[in-house]
Structures are given as structure tokens and as C-alpha cells.
Amino acid sequence: MARILAISPHLDDAVLSYGGQLAMLASAGHQVVVYTVFAGTPSPPYSPRAAAFHRTWQLTGDPVAPRRAEDHRALSVLGVTSVHGTFLDAVYRRDERGGWLVQDGQEPTECQVD
């Protein structure tokens, strides 16, 4: 059987975008691993947008930990191994001038790895 590596940009993208294919490959006996790139643990201070998300979702401590756990559980149900990268999601990153990459009321306009 084959060893298969699937790259997912964000947590839950793999399950929601191609979960059926992953499950089919795993059930056929292939060793399937999903590597999620932007799953790192951010440190305060958080962007105003991120802080608003944290308040709405009542997150404390590592705000990404619940999403990593959810992603791990969902991929496990499919018979797939999850590996989480350490790059930060855009809402936690700053641009080259030190400003927040994602401003309040604005969607990210670029994808960059710092």
C-alpha cells in the first residue's frame, strides 16, 4: 500500500474539501497523513480581529488548540493521521511594516509565510 501526504492550508480544510477521498484512500489500506500548514500557536498581543473572535468563541489560553483537537478528531474518524504545522494563520500575523495582516472588517488580500 502507498504512503500518501496531503497538504492542507488551514485546519478543517482537508476534511471539508476532500474528506471523502481521504477516507476512501485510508479504507483501501493506504497510510494517509494530512499536514496542516497554518496551525501554529499565536502569542499575545492579538490583532483586534483575533481578539474579537476569542471573545465571541470564549477562548482562553492557546486559541488554536480547540481547532487542532477538532481537526485531529475529524481526521481520525476518516482513518487519517493529522500533523499540524507551526505557521500562524493570517489573523495572527503582521505585515513587513508591523501592521496586522488582517484588519478589522477586511479579508486577507495576500497569502504570505513570514
Please, could you describe this protein's structure?
This protein is an alpha/beta fold. 33% of the residues lie in helices and 18% in strands. The chain has 3 helices and 3 strands; from the N terminus they run βαβααβ. It has helices at residues 13-27, 48-57, 65-77, and strands spanning 3-10, 31-38, 81-84. Strands 1-2-3 form a 3-stranded parallel beta sheet, with helices on one face. Strand 1, helix 1 and strand 2 form a beta-alpha-beta unit. Helix 1 (13-27) packs parallel to helix 3. The longest helix is centred in the N-terminal third of the chain and has 15 residues, at 13-27. It is elongated. The N and C termini lie far apart (36 Å).
Q: What's the overall geometry?
A: elongated
Radius of gyration: 16 Å
User: What kind of sheet is the major sheet?
Assistant: 3 strands, parallel
| Proportion of residues in β-strands | 15-25%
Low-confidence stretches: 108-114
First-residue to last-residue Cα separation: 36 Å
Mean pLDDT: 91
What structural class do helix, strand and pairing data support? alpha/beta
Helix coverage percent of residues? 25-40%
Order of helices and strands: EHEHHE
Count of discrete alpha- or pi-helical segments spanning 4 or more residues: 3
- The number of strands is 3
Identify the strand order in the major beta sheet.
Answer: 1-2-3
